[in-house]
Amino acid sequence: MSSSDVAMALDSPSPEAEPKYGGFTRFEIELEFVQSLANPFYLNHLASQKLLNDPAFVAYLAYLQYWSRPPYIKYLNYPGPTLKHLELLQEERFRQDIISPELAQALAAEGVKASVEWHKDD
Which SS3 state, helix, strand or coil, does residue 87 take? Predict the structure, then answer.
């Protein structure tokens, strides 16, 4: 092991030493939140609470894009809609438009259709 490997190991906290927030690690909390973005009705709720207009929240959504890369993507249960919606949330126009229940319903219908089509291939 080189001296740089030792330094990296010392800088990286062990999983047991990672701080907990309400009994959960930051990784667990961010995973649960980013997966909730797969639900278009939740996106509509975030818009109705004016969170999608908050620059700090928008910056947090930009930060969460690390979930679209390895090794994090493998932890997503529904990577397709999760990452699609995370990408759409980077666009100001989408953040404004998702307040519409009709858009949330259209995204939900699109998700159901994609699921049915995917299962037809089995």
Answer: helix
Average pLDDT, the chain: 87
Taking CA atoms, 52 is separated from 17, 33, 56, 89, 114, in Å, by 33, 14, 9, 8, 26
* Predicted model pTM: 0.79
CB atoms within 10 A of CB 37: 22
What CATH code is assigned to 21-120?
Answer: 1.10.10.1340
In whole angstroms, what is the distance from residue 78 CA to residue 42 CA?
15
List Cβ neighbours of 24 (8 Å cut-off, separation of 6 or more).
none
Domain boundaries defined on the chain: 21-120
pLDDT in tens, 9-29: 434 445 567 888 899 999 999
With beta carbons less than 8 A apart as the criterion, state whether 40 and 111 touch.
yes
Contact 40, 98 (CB under 8 A): yes
